[in-house]
Amino acid sequence: MADLLSDRHLRETKIHGELVYEGDFLHIQKDIITLPDGKKASREFIRHPGAVVVIPLLSDGTVLMERQFRYPLNRVFIEFPAGKIDPGEDPLICAQRELKEETGYSAAQWRHLCTIHNAIAYSDEHLEIYIAEELTQGTATLDDEEFLETFSASHAELMQWVRDGTITDVKTVIGIFWLEKILSSIW
């Protein structure tokens, strides 16, 4: 049991590294590391500032969702509202900002659900998932390069769309499973 609590025998140690690509949003890092057995290896990974995900629960029990085209996969995805955390920005403030910008809604009640790491093999990205309740409708103010539409769906519809592959976005799938536990009062 003691070995399960210690991770020294699994750790990799950075010898040196360099930024090999610096984009407007993402940066790619390449590090040379020492493996637990003493051998050297390289690790390439994407540096990401982190993001928030908002599960907006409407008063009628439905959930506010978005449809948005995602260029890398050349298709429209169904997702929860989400967005990148700005440098120095508190994640809750980011979640409130993103919900308002993308949907026009604001929420009186917020709860942090969890932190997920969606691509641990090649990125340091983390996502903070929040549930937003007691929503008030307003006007969306999308970014200049942002195009999306919003709609509401029941939790049963969302679960069916996960089952049949309509929803495949990992942050949304995890959020839907969290919502299932919250709505059933398990969590």
UniProtKB/TrEMBL annotation:
Names of required cofactors: Mg(2+)
InterPro entries on file: NUDIX_hydrolase-like_dom_sf (IPR015797), NUDIX_hydrolase_CS (IPR020084), NUDIX_hydrolase_dom (IPR000086)
Top-level division of the source organism's lineage: Bacteria
Pfam families: NUDIX
Gene3D superfamilies, A to Z: Nucleoside Triphosphate Pyrophosphohydrolase
Catalytic activity: GDP-alpha-D-mannose + H2O = alpha-D-mannose 1-phosphate + GMP + 2 H(+)
UniProt KW keywords: Hydrolase
This protein's name: GDP-mannose pyrophosphatase
